[in-house]
Structure formats: C-alpha cells, structure tokens
Amino acid sequence: MAEQAISVSLLTGEIKRLLENGIGEVLVVGEISNYKLHSSGHRYFTLKDSEASISGVMWRTRPLNFVPQDGMRVVVRGRLTVYNAQGKYQIDCVAMRPEGIGDLHQAFEELKQRLGAQGYFDAGRKRPLPRPIRRVGIATSPTGAVIRDMLTTIERRFPSLEVVFRPTIVQGGEHASRDIAAAIEQLNRCDVDVIIVGRGGGSLEDLWCFNTQVVADAIRSSSIPVISAVGHETDVTISDWVADVRAATPTAAAEMVTPVTRQDLLMALDALAREMTNDVRRNISDMQQLATAFVDGRAARRITERILMRAQRVDDLSTRLARSASNRLQRERIRVDHAAALLTSLHPLAPLQRGYAVIERNGHVLNATTPLQPGDKIDIRRQHDVVQATVDAITNVESTKGTSHGKDKG
Amino acid sequence: MAKTKDEAPKSLEEQLKRLEEIATLLDRGDAPIDQQLQLFEEGMALAAGCRAYLEQAELKVQTLSGENPVIP
Fold first, then answer.
1. Would you tell me which residues 29-48 of chain A have a C-beta closer than 8 angstroms to some C-beta of chain B?
2. Are the C-beta atoms of A180 and A226 separated by less than 8 Å?
3. What are the residue boundaries of the structural domains of chain B, listed by start?
C-alpha cells in the first residue's frame, strides 16, 4: 500500500483508463436480461452467459432497429468503460443486433401469445369501418413510395376525402415504436373517422417496430378504428393482429377507406337523372294525352295513335339519352348544362310545337283530374295562339269508346 | 350546393339522399304534374351540383408535425 492515500475518484479514474485503454472496443455475444428502457430513451441491461454477466448501456442516440427482450441472444459492439458513481464497469454499446433471426421469431411468438392471452386480438373488440368516411388519418413514413401510393389511390378513387398525414418513423426499433404510438394518439385528436398505420415490406427487423407492446397498446386504446397495413401480403405483425382491420398492403388500406369511388357516384347520378327524366316524361306524356282528349272529338282513334307515338318518342329519346350518357361516361365528364337542355325539352308547352293543345284555367295547366264545370272559362293554348272558350258540357268517357269535347265559343 | 371544406362531404351525402327521395316520388308519379316538374328541376339541379362537386374535388392533405426523435 502506498504511503500517500489517493481519492476514490482518482483511483476510479485510474481503473477507467486501464480498462478503456487496455480493453477498449469489444464485440460481445450474450443473453439479455433486466432490459430497461428508461423514459429518457436510454437503455440499460445486463448481458450474461451461464457463468458471468456484465452491465450494458446504450444511449438513446444510438439507433436500434429492433426491440430487445429479456432472454434474447444479442451481439453488441461497444467500448468498455466505468460508471464512476457506482464503481461499475460496463459496456457502452454503439450497436446491437439479434444473434440469429430465430430470436426475433421467438420474441414475436412470445409477445403474440402473451397479448393474445390478454385479449388484445379478440374479435369482439374489433370495430367495423364507419360509413361514410370523410377524414382519414395516415401514419407512415414521409419518404418513399408508400405515402405516395396511398395518396394516389385515394385521389384516383375518391378525391373528396380529406387526409390528415402524420409523418412517422416506421423503420426499426424502439424509436419507431414510440413514434408510431405517438402518431396514433395524435391522430385520435384530429377528428378523423379512421386511422391507417403502415409501411412497405421489409425484413423482420425492419418491421419490428410494429411488433411491440407499445404499438399494440396504442392501437388498443385508440378510440378511432385503426387499419394496420404493414408490409406485403405475407408479412403479419402484432399491429395487424391488434388492429380493427388488417389491410394486406398500404394501397389496399387506401382502397378500404374509399369503398365508393367518384366514378361509382357519377354513374349512380347519371342513372338517377335518366330515371327521373324517363319518369317525368312518361307522366307528362300521360297528362298530355288526356288533355288532348278534351279538345279532340276523335279521341278514341287519336288515343291509340298517341300511344304509338308516345312509345316511339320514348324510344327515340331514350336512345338519344343512352347514347349521350355513354359518351359522357367515356369522357368521364358530365355536362352541367345537360339538365337545362332536358328541362327545356320536357316543358309541358313543348308539345305545342308538334300540334298539340293544352287547356289552362287562370294560367294553370289543367290535367285530366282537374274538376271542370259547364260555364267554366278556359284557355286552349296552341302553338301560335290562345283560344278563350267556355265549357258547354262535360261527358264522361267510358273506356276508349266514348267521346268528350269542349266546344269553342268565340 | 355546398362547397366549403367542412361540410361538403356530409352535404354530398345529404344531397344524394334527397336526390333518391325525388327519384322515388317521380317514379311513383302520383304528384300533380306541376309539382313533378318542380321536383324534377330540383333533382336535376342536385345531380348537376353533385357532379360538379365530384368533378372539381381535389384531395386535401393536412400534414402534422410529428415528434421526431433525434437519430445521429
């Protein structure tokens, strides 16, 4: 023992220098235990084998692309150093990877079993997607094809949708996991109808951030239905299991939130417009016929004629309409002035141009059921003039054999 | 027709619903012809409005700022 006592700090500094210079950088394989992710983001753990153990620390700034679990065999690279305050030597890790892919698979299976036992995957707590969907939250990487593909798909199918995009780290380990969970939480406050979390395909390590309890918890606590769209068809993650709906790919998720496309709606609108047009045309045609019968003594014969003409006219118009509808669809554009043109052609006075007459009283068109009395003043509107007339008599028409007429009086 | 950002999708639904009502009424055909023409006019205007809305719609994307951890 030296005569001169030295301080603990000095001694520790000496030990530290010995270890750091004497051993320095190491590459060590061992089993992880007591793994702790501190709220600061730093990770503390013990590496051990059957006979020895050593403390390890990995600062939050060191990237880690998977989530270490106790019992997992890992290879770490780092420097041997001393934690002065506790007189403890430890490895300051720069990098860590699972020793074999088998460990990741095993960790995945273990977590899946544990969460399954806790009811995370119960079919009963899965919610259906709402209808209609107006706003969608998306959590994925701001770079790469995935967000672009999803936005392109949504824009092509139903551009009226609103998208709230939360750029998210979706590659690798803990940072990504925490960011995904934060994104789900944040999107829950954004008045969206559904949330998509996803990323493109990758290795099990790449996708690992979706295989964590943090993400499982975030999805489970989401009050908004979550679609998990991770990787390709064959990649299944914990996130997929917990989510309300699993989409095979991000693009498939984009299709799910746009179940009715713009094209569907345009075609439905077109069909509705066509139906309305046909119905009104038919109803007006009926009315026209009966109105004409009032002023035409030879009603019986003419009615048959009219019916034939009407049939022909409906044929003509529907052919024209069908042709114009298909043209419009081909152009994917439906002209707004279409409605105006149809309205003009359907105006009740339009048939006057074809020689028909319409009966009016006080400016209102009379139809077949409007009550009329002898002595009533009526106007008979023809194409170029209006005949003022007084009703002489009203005779009910029995089937098509009867007659009825209104007699003109100067 | 509504074109404002907040209510457009909802009012699209409402407009479509009204349009279907009108189509049903016209199909039934028992309303007075004047009223039918009014309904028809309303229906065609709705259809044209919905079309215009759908055709003019552009995808709106709002991007949030995330909390991006620092990775060296």
1. 41
2. no
3. 10-56
Torsions phi, psi for A76 (to 5 deg)? -115, 150
Q: Nearest Cβ partner of A134 from B10, B40, B52?
A: B10
**For A168, nearest residue in chain B (alpha carbons):** B66
Query: Pick from B23, B51, B64: which is nearest to A336 by CB?
Result: B51
And the tokens for A170?
Answer: 């979706």
Question: In whole angstroms, what is the distance from residue A382 CA to residue A387 CA?
Answer: 8
- Condensed to tens digits (0 to 9), the pLDDT of residues A271-309 reads 888 888 888 777 767 766 665 555 555 554 555 455 455
- B22: Cβ contacts below 8 Å, ≥ 6 apart: A276, B39, B40, B42, B43, B46
CA count, 13 A, side-chain hemisphere, A325: 18
Tell me the nearest-neighbour CA distance from A132 into chain B, angstroms. Answer: 8
The reported pTM is 0.61
Instruction: Select from A178, A196, A265, A276 the residue whose CB has the most chain B CBs within 10 Å, as the one to mutate to test that interface.
Output: A276
CA B34/CA A163 separation, integer angstroms: 44
Using CB atoms, pick whichever of B12, B19, B33 lies closest to residue A348.
B33
Predicted ipTM of the assembly: 0.76
CB contact under 8 A, A169 and B67: no
Helix A101-117 and helix A213-221, axial crossing angle in degrees, nearest 10: 30
User: What's A65's DSSP letter?
Assistant: S
| Out of B34, B59, B65, closest to residue A155 by CB | B59
Within 10 angstroms of residue B54's Cβ, the number of other Cβ atoms is 19
Q: B29 to chain A: which residues are within 8 Å by CB?
A: 279, 282-283
Structural contact between residues A68 and A99, judged by C-beta atoms closer than 8 angstroms: no
CA gap A106, A108 in Å, rounded: 5
Q: Which residue blocks in A127-261 are alpha helix, DSSP H?
A: 145-157, 174-188, 213-221, 238-242, 250-256
Strand bridging mode A377-381 / A386-390: antiparallel
